[in-house]
Amino acid sequence: MNRPGRTLWHDDQGAATAEFAMVLPVIVVLAGLLLYWGRASVVSIGCQDAAANVARTLVAQEQTGDLHMAAQTVAGANVGVEVNDLGSSIEVTTKCAVVADPWGIVPRTVTGHAVGVKQEQP
Question: What are the coiled-coil residue ranges (predicted)?
Answer without folding.
Answer: none
